[in-house]
C-alpha cells in the first residue's frame, strides 16, 4: 500500500543530512524534471521581485527565497519529517514505535510540486514551490509532471490511497487510486465539505494506514479497516470512500 500525502507550505528548517542528491532519491524516472525545477528555483531566487511574483510571496517571506537559493547546499532531512502543519502533527511519525515507523517509511510518500513524489525516507531540503506556481520560462507544473509522474504512480504495483489535495492530484492523477473525502453531517441529514478540520482527519487516516499491520489491497478492505478503527466510512462501490463526521 502506498499512501500519498499532501505537502504543506510550512516546512521544518531542521536537518543534518548531506546536501540534496537528486540521483539518490527514490523514483529515479522523475530525476529529469526534478533537475529542471531545482535549477529554475535556484536561478529565480537571485531575482527577488520575480521570485515573489512567481511563488506568491510577500517581501516578509524572503526567508523562503533564501531556502530556494540554497537548495543544493542546505542540509536535508527525511521528507516525512520535513513537512509540518496540522496533518503532519496528527500523523506524528516521531511518536511511532520502531515497528510502526518502519511500516510508515515503506508506505508513506508526499506529493510535491518540486520533487513530484517524495518517499518518506527521501532526504530533502526545505523549499518553497506550490502546485499552482508558474515558473518563468517553463511549462506549467502539470505539463511537466503529468507525463512522468502519472505513469510512475500507476506502475507502483500496489494499492494507492490518494490523500492529496485537488491541486496536487491534478499534477498526476492515479488511475484506480482510492480517495477519501471528508464530509460533515448535520442532524437533518444534509452534508457539507469539511474544510477547517479536513487536514486533521486525513492525518488520522494517514496514521492508521501507516501503522496498521494489515495490508489492504482494495477499497473494500480499506473501508473495513477504517470502520474497525471506529470511523464512519461509506463506500459506493467505486474507489472513493467518504468519511462522515457529525456536525460540530
Q: Sheet bearing the most strands, described?
A: 8 strands, mixed
SSE string, helices as H and strands as E? EHHHEHHHEEEHEHEEHHEE
N-end to C-end Cα span: 32 Å
Radius of gyration computed on alpha carbons: 18 Å
- The number of distinct β-strands equals 10
Q: Let me know the average pLDDT.
A: 95
Description of the molecule:
The chain is of the alpha/beta class and 248 residues long. The chain has one domain. Helix content is 38%, strand content 17%. The protein has ten helices and ten strands. The protein has helices spanning 31-45, 48-55, 62-69, 79-82, 86-91, 98-107, 141-154, 166-169, 198-211, 219-228, and strands spanning 2-5, 77-78, 108-112, 116-119, 123-124, 160-162, 178-185, 191-193, 233-235, 240-246. The strands form two sheets. Strands 1, 3, 4, 6, 7, 8, 9 and 10 form an eight-stranded mixed β-sheet that branches. A two-stranded antiparallel ribbon has the order 2-5. The chain is globular, with a radius of gyration of 18 Å. It starts with a strand and ends with a strand. The model has no long low-confidence stretch (mean pLDDT 95).
Short note summarizing the structure:
By secondary structure, this protein is of the alpha/beta class. It is built from 10 helices and 10 strands.
Which key phrases capture this entry?
single chain, 248 residues, alpha/beta, eight-stranded mixed beta sheet, two-stranded antiparallel ribbon, 10 helices
What's the topology here?
Elements: E1 2-5, H1 31-45, H2 48-55, H3 62-69, E2 77-78, H4 79-82, H5 86-91, H6 98-107, E3 108-112, E4 116-119, E5 123-124, H7 141-154, E6 160-162, H8 166-169, E7 178-185, E8 191-193, H9 198-211, H10 219-228, E9 233-235, E10 240-246
Parallel strand pairs: 1-3, 1-6, 6-7, 7-10
Antiparallel strand pairs: 2-5, 3-4, 7-8, 9-10
Helix pairs in contact: 1-3, 6-9
Protein name: Peroxide stress protein YaaA
Pfam families: H2O2_YaaD (PF03883)
InterPro entries: YaaA
Amino acid at each position: 500500500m502506498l499512501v500519498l500525502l499532501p505537502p504543506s507550505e510550512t516546512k521544518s528548517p531542521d536537518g543534518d543530512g548531506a546536501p540534496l542528491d537528486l540521483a539518490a532519491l527514490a523514483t529515479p524516472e522523475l530525476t529529469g524534471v526534478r533537475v529542471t525545477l531545482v535549477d529554475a528555483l535556484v536561478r529565480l531566487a537571485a531575482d527577488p521581485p520575480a521570485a515573489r511574483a512567481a511563488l506568491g510571496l510577500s517581501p516578509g517571506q524572503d526567508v523562503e527565497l533564501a531556502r530556494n537559493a540554497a537548495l543544493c547546499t542546505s542540509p536535508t532531512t527525511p521528507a516525512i519529517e520535513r513537512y509540518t502543519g496540522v496533518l503532519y502533527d496528527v500523523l506524528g511519525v516521531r511518536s511511532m514505535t520502531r515497528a510502526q515507523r518502519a511500516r510508515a517509511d515503506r508506505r508513506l510518500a508526499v506529493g510535491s510540486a518540486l520533487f513530484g513524489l517524495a518517499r518518506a525516507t527521501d532526504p530533502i531540503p526545505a523549499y518553497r514551490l506550490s502546485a499552482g506556481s508558474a515558473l518563468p520560462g517553463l511549462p506549467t507544473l502539470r505539463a511537466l509532471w503529468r507525463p512522468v509522474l502519472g505513469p510512475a504512480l500507476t506502475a507502483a504495483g500496489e494499492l494507492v490511497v490518494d490523500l492529496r489535495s485537488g491541486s496536487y492530484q491534478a499534477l498526476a492523477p492515479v488511475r484506480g487510486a482510492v480517495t477519501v473525502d471528508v464530509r460533515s453531517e448535520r442532524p437533518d441529514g444534509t452534508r457539507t465539505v469539511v474544510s477547517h478540520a479536513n487536514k486533521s482527519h486525513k492525518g488520522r487516516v494517514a496514521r492508521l494506514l501507516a501503522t496498521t499491520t494489515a495490508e489492504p489491497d482494495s477499497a473494500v478492505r480499506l473501508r473495513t479497516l477504517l470502520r474497525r478503527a471506529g470511523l464512519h466510512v461509506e463506500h459506493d462501490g467505486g474507489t472513493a470512500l467518504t468519511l462522515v463526521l457529525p456536525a460540530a
